[in-house]
Amino acid sequence: MKLAKTLQSLFVTSEAHPLIKTGGLADVAGSLPQALATLKAVRQQAAVNQHILLPGYRSVLAQFDDLKHIADIEHTGHHGVVRLLETKFPDSDITLWLVDAPNCFDRDGGPYADATGQDWPDNAARFAVFSRAAVAIALNQLDLDWQPDIVHCHDWQTGLIPALLSLHEQRPATLFTIHNLAYQGVYSAETFFNLGLPQELWHMHGLEYHGNMAFIKGGLAYADWLTTVSPTYAHEIQGSEFGFGLDGLLRHRTEQLNGIINGVDYDDWDPATDPALVENYDVEHFEKKLSNKTALQKQAGLPVDEDIPVLAFIGRLVWQKGIDVLLESLPQLLRLNIQCIILGSGEHSHEQTLRKLQKRFPDKLAVTIGYNEEYAHQLEAGADMFCMLSRYEPCGLNQLYSLRYGTVPIVRRTGGLADTVIDASQGARSTGFCFNQTTQADFIDAMQRALARYNKPKQWQALAERGMRRDFGWQQSARHYLELYIKVCQQRP
Ligand code: ADP
What we know:
The structure is a single chain. The strands form three sheets. This protein has a nine-stranded mixed sheet with strand order 3-4-5-2-1-6-7-11-12, with helices on both faces. Strands 15-14-13-16-17-18 form a six-stranded parallel sheet, sandwiched between helices. By secondary structure, the protein is an alpha/beta fold. The protein has two domains: 6-263 and 474-491, Glycogen Phosphorylase B (Rossmann fold, 3-Layer(aba) Sandwich); 283-469, Glycogen Phosphorylase B (Rossmann fold, 3-Layer(aba) Sandwich). The chain contains 19 helices and 18 strands.
């Protein structure tokens, strides 16, 4: 195709910060389109005009009072009314479109699950409606007088889009980004037929997956290009350990699979300006981090003592994050001179164990079960070190926040963690501590190395400051995406 000066892109996502968030995808969706919009054209070749498409969840619609009904969408395989609403994405000039399908999205609870954490039983139908709405827009069927050059889809909820678009000659290019391969949107064959999906998509190289259907295969098999959120994860998912049954397909697509590391939105995550902190600081004023530590110890109900290192963990309390190994390790770890603060929610049994451990070690362990954005910022600022024991980690954001906050990351060497944290053994380049396996032995060993370094304050500060100086802002990643958008559009026959 001949490339227009301004590339039109439809960015389709099931969550976007600050409107709705369950994990890292929301952070990416809330930042990348804006970073792309502000990016100066790559070698004068093109700029991007993004439109974001998001489901019209009840809680999202409630955040706007200027929604404009711009189209009705038919043929979504859904009996209720489906309307397309338009507004601007918060604090930006980017067009936000919301798929208002009340039967699917007008309910209390999260985007994928009810308030008890139970997946919505009609998730397949909900995201099929959403995907069909995206396809109608992408094919310019809604009289919007707009057609994207490229549709950028994310995770299984949007997997049907590249598959359905592949059946049309006059379609835009498609890019599918994998944020977490473990979530695949697998449903029965019966669901495939109940959704009225085209028969030609039902085969082992299509949506079929061992007799079931997998939404994510729509993206992996049919998108023109694939990305995931770090180079190491892009490599790992082509092997059986991290491929979750899809490694064969990914190896087949290796020529069209890139890893682009996520950026950090430093407007939200910068200790120099963060409004959640008791005192702002930056790399030139590392000593001001201390008042945040003191405030944190007080808030967490732990003894206030600047000499005791504080270790933090924030995240979902699930197997992926190695939370079971962290829990197992705590009794041994807490015998050392250390305080540990944990913020998270997830599996009930882990939450229970944490509560019990807190009772057993009231002076050493503070636990907050729940989701608390402000406290997450205070923890990043107040802690000395931050641990991530992930069994796999496509990119990971908390280690990037930790680096910027001078909170030394201690991470398992996997996925984006391996790409962004440099082990202390690497001398003048180092920014943290890495360990090989999610096991108690490897984790405790890394912790002991970290504690030994902590006892040499000058060296510790130098390590933390090196991390603070690293730049993981969106500019560079957005540039990679733009180059890829251009390439994918140019390659489309
Ligand atoms: P994932 O997407 O696998 O959950 P990421 O590290 O990519 O992991 O992103 C998680 C995001 O969610 C981070 O911004 C993290 O700070 C935030 N987060 C996770 N759990 C909590 C919590 N309990 N309270 C506040 N923020 C949380």
